[in-house]
TrEMBL record:
Signal peptide: none annotated. It comes from the Bacteria. Gene3D superfamilies: 3.30.300.30, N-terminal domain of ligase-like. SUPFAM superfamilies: Acetyl-CoA synthetase-like. Keywords: Ligase. Coiled coil: none annotated. InterPro entries: AMP-bd_C_sf, AMP-dep_Lig_C, ANL_N_sf. This is Phenylacetate--CoA ligase family protein. The lineage of its organism: Bacteria, Bacillati, Actinomycetota, Actinomycetes, Micrococcales. One of its GO terms (molecular function) is ligase activity. Residues 202-286 form the AMP-dependent ligase C-terminal domain.
Length: 290
């Protein structure tokens, strides 16, 4: 386990009989710490934080996690995980990936089980969920897509009432195969990270699921270009790329794949990483143009 925000899960793990290693000095050292320094521990699970850095390190050092920790059952983290990201993670680590829903304000309100993935079980004894139309804020019909609103029921000192998550979701309230009756939330994307192309709304997750299946743009930072006046006639995507001999061919291939899979006209711009705002973990997924 690493990063202070997730030390709060340690008590639950201990109650299950687990031995918890909380490593908080540098969350960029997940692989060197867990797969080299602690190679003899034989972990059941490992929390990952910087997937790109971690996988790059494993490839450069020829590290096979399941050989280091033969009892490793799964890896886990807490970010909006696309199908493409999950595929990369599970291929590199050799075990299933389990996601948790997280928010800087709501902490960890949800998590996957082996049957619900990629949907997340929300803890409905701790959080009140609503799905509304983002324009009218009226509730949508049961099972319909809408914006997620969360009210936490446990944070007595700092409650958040009807907190707009800006996530577009669909909720399944049927009983899961695991036996849980907690609602399963399927994430579609975030309104702030989307553009309207004609009558089709394209989310950053849609674009990521295309770009990250190409080896040249695996884990590449990217941006959707949102024209100030919506809708726009075509999808414009900016992305970084590793060394490529034929950039024109790559631009065309990526643009055609985006068009074929998303059903909208698409143009790809290859840019330097410095042209996309990148923080320690996240990058700006949308940029606005006149």
């Amino acid at each position: 386990m690493t990063w202070h925000g997730y030390s709060m899960t340690a008590e639950g793990a201990r109650r299950l009989g687990a031995t918890v290693f909380a490593l908080e000095f540098d969350n960029r050292q997940v692989v060197p710490t867990n797969l080299e320094l602690l190679a003899g521990v034989d972990f059941d699970s490992i929390f990952i934080y910087h997937p790109e850095i971690e996988i790059k390190y494993m490839r450069e050092h020829d590290i096979v996690p399941t050989q280091v920790h033969p009892n490793l059952k799964f890896i886990y983290s807490a970010f909006l995980c696309t199908d493409a990201r999950r595929t990369i993670l599970e291929r590199a680590w050799g075990v299933p990936y389990r996601n948790m829903g997280s928010s800087g304000d709501q902490y960890i309100p949800a998590s996957e089980c082996e049957f619900s993935a990629p949907a997340l079980h929300f803890l409905e004894d701790q959080f009140l969920l609503e799905v509304v139309d983002s324009d009218t804020l009226e509730s949508v019909e049961q099972g319909a897509e809408g914006e997620l609103i969360v009210t936490n029921l446990w944070a007595e000192a700092t409650p958040f009432l009807r907190y707009r998550m800006e996530d577009v979701v669909q909720i399944d309230e049927s009983t899961c195969e695991c036996g849980s009756t907690h609602a399963r939330v399927n994430y579609r994307g975030r309104y702030a990270w989307s553009v309207l192309v004609g009558t089709n709304r394209v989310f950053s997750d849609d674009v990521e699921n295309v770009l990250w299946t190409h080896p040249e743009t695996e884990f590449a930072a990217y941006q959707l270009v949102k024209l100030r006046h919506q809708p726009q006639d075509e999808l414009i995507v900016r992305t970084t790329v590793s060394e490529v001999s034929n950039t024109d061919e790559l631009r065309t291939r990526l643009g055609n794949d985006l068009h074929d899979r998303l059903g909208v006209p698409a143009v790809v711009e290859l840019v330097d990483a410095s042209d996309i705002g990148i923080g320690t973990v996240k990058f700006a997924r949308v940029t606005v143009r006149d």
